[in-house]
Amino acid sequence: MSLPSNTSFILHFTFYNLHPASCILPPTLYLRKTQLTPHTALITVCADGGANHFYDMMRSRGRESTDHPTLIIGDLDSIRPSVRSHYEAHDIPVIYHHDDYSTDFQKALNYIRAHTDEILSKTSPSPSPSSSPLPSPSSSKLSPSPPTGEPQPQQHQHQHQHQQDQPPLSILILGGLGGRVDQAFSQIHHLYTQTQRHRHLQSASQTKPGNLYLISEESITFILHSGKNIIHTPRANRAAPKPDDEKDGNGNGNESGSEGYLLEENVGIIPLSGMTRITTKGFQWDVEEWETEIGGQISTSNHVQADVVEVSAPVPVLLTLELAGRFKR
């Protein structure tokens, strides 16, 4: 069984035991009434042109001079010169990394992955005097320097215990699904492959598995593990229609009544690696050992009907949930 995913933690940007990193991608992401600031993540990485949108978002709130990303990385062919100059003037590292075989999205994820231990060390309640802060990414090197010597047994034991005690690092990927269809497919492709690689590397290092969440203007999308997945979906807008006296003059429910919603009821479960069979619980149309594949039948426009839902499949599948209307543009 995989670890539960709690969408309310993600959408509130209050993670309790989930410590996030964020990766900002183009195109522009508007999340109305959402307090998206660098302070909600341990590290905020802008992938090239994502810096333009981060800057514009902060400027619209009058915070462009106080709220900055941790760093900007990519081939730097999309960032506006004025935005680059602005962040360089505030000592924000801008890393040029040219690689025709990886996207700026991959470069940003590679950086976060290579520095996971340093990022998570910022959550330690009582760091030792010798602990160093997250190193400044002043070069394009995306992997940690090799050790200068073999660790002593006591050091190895301490490091092993530290890894076990570390919380998972969840990565929020903001933007990336708007605009061109081929780019949207590219982001879904990378979400799938990078999630699998992310989990494999975390398993190899014996750290608790985090997750990657792709948040667009309309949805929150992530990859479910093979096996049984438990997803917490509280405060989804699945209530029965309101009586007429609770509606406004346009026949809509009161805005104040919808302020607590995090999700709409719509959900999709998409197979990405060929035919598989899914079993679900907590949806309007539950299925058992239901065959699904692209080119055959797929589960779209199903409805969340419970605060906790379950999805089981022998292979990883994509889950996408519609964000509440109050988050949308």
UniProtKB/TrEMBL annotation:
SUPFAM superfamilies: Thiamin pyrophosphokinase, catalytic domain, Thiamin pyrophosphokinase, substrate-binding domain. Coiled coil: none annotated. Keywords: ATP-binding, Kinase, Nucleotide-binding, Transferase. InterPro entries: Thi_PPkinase (IPR006282), Thiamin_pyrophosphokinase_euk (IPR016966), Thiamin_PyroPKinase_B1-bd (IPR007373), TPK_B1-bd_sf (IPR036371), TPK_catalytic (IPR007371), TPK_catalytic_sf (IPR036759). It holds the Pfam family TPK_catalytic. One of its GO terms (biological process) is thiamine metabolic process. It comes from the Eukaryota. GO terms for molecular function: ATP binding; kinase activity; thiamine binding; thiamine diphosphokinase activity. Residues 126-136 have a biased composition (Pro residues). The keyword Transferase applies. Its EC number is 2.7.6.2. Residues 227-319 form the Thiamin pyrophosphokinase thiamin-binding domain. It catalyses: thiamine + ATP = thiamine diphosphate + AMP + H(+). Residues 120-166, 233-260 are annotated as: Disordered. Signal peptide: none annotated. Pathway: Cofactor biosynthesis; thiamine diphosphate biosynthesis; thiamine diphosphate from thiamine: step 1/1. It is an enzyme of class 2 (transferase). Belongs to the thiamine pyrophosphokinase family. PANTHER family: THIAMIN PYROPHOSPHOKINASE, THIAMIN PYROPHOSPHOKINASE 1. This is Thiamine pyrophosphokinase. It comes from Aspergillus heteromorphus CBS 117.55.
